[in-house]
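Shift notes (night). Ran Xylose reductase while the centrifuge was going.
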Amino acid sequence: MAHITTVTLKRTGAKMPLVGFGLWKVTKETCAQTVYNAIKEGYRLFDSALDYGNEKEAGEGLARAIKDGLVKREDVWITSKLWNTYHEKERVEEGIKTSLKLWGLDYFDLYLVHFPISLEYISPETKFPQEWWGLDGKIHPINVPFQETWAEIEKLVDNGLAKNIGLSNAQGSLIFDVHRYARIEPQVLQVELHPYLTQEPLVKYCKLIGLAITAYSSFGPQSYVELGYQGATSLMEHDTVTAIASKNQKTPAQILLRWALQQGLAVIPKSNNHERLVQNLQSVDFELSEDEMKSISSLNKNLRLNDPVDLDPRLGIFA
Ligand code: NAP
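Came back to this:
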């Protein structure tokens, strides 16, 4: 049986690879070489953001891969995201152009609004990446309606800077609202999604309206351990996952990725380790049984690891 490796986006018909490489927390020093190696191993999608602070290095890796004839620009899918400090109408184009310049590209295949949260502008010359905090160490939300930002995001399609546009960290009510005024509907929603946070109603709603989903943090708590998280049992070590892994002769990581892929979701695992990077790409060519899918889904406990409310109680976008 031929395995599906792309998802076709509704508006443009563009084929987005289902397995990509996530660049958050990929160290600056290794980023160029990691991107180069990932391309060599077969990755064709890179998920970046201005906030990750490594777009320049990622672009260097891509440029070298193109120069060495491994790929052409049109063979790779590059996603980036508008940071929170660029939501005002006069800032959106500056946001994407800053990322494009760092990558050394003239368009992104997909451009997402990173969070539905607008923060006071800080120039990249003053602080880079701008992150959540102002120069005084405090968070400064500003009043920009999402509709204002979205109208500018649509213009990025008109002027060719983004082929596809979408949302990140949005829930049903915002998606519903955007569809009331969108001239160009979002094509992709990128959200935290793993067996501890299965988000079934959101997945169902997005399927209904033709909004493709990219699941981030597919390994659940794993990604947050390096940030100091010490909560729930690692999904990689959970009995349910390890039993299914040994039965299928796959690693727990491959099982977690396959569980998402088999629901039609795209994934973007990150690894600073070459062997794991290769292993993660090999998650499309096997099938989990219906029972295995169900038992993994039953691990859900609505555990959200990436919630801005933990930084500031005013940022309750998932409340
Ligand atoms: P992730 O890919 O779920 O997990 C990464 C963690 O798992 C790292 O600690 C990594 O360690 C480890 N790991 C990777 N492959 C492994 C394997 N095969 N076996 C064992 N451990 C493995 O987490 P993530 O980085 O949070 O999410 C992925 C991507 O989603 C990000 O890089 C970013 O592009 C995107 N993202 C987007 C948002 C958003 O707000 N839109 C938020 C978070 C993430 P090593 O590096 O040591 O292998």
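The chain has eleven helices and ten strands. The mean pLDDT is 97.
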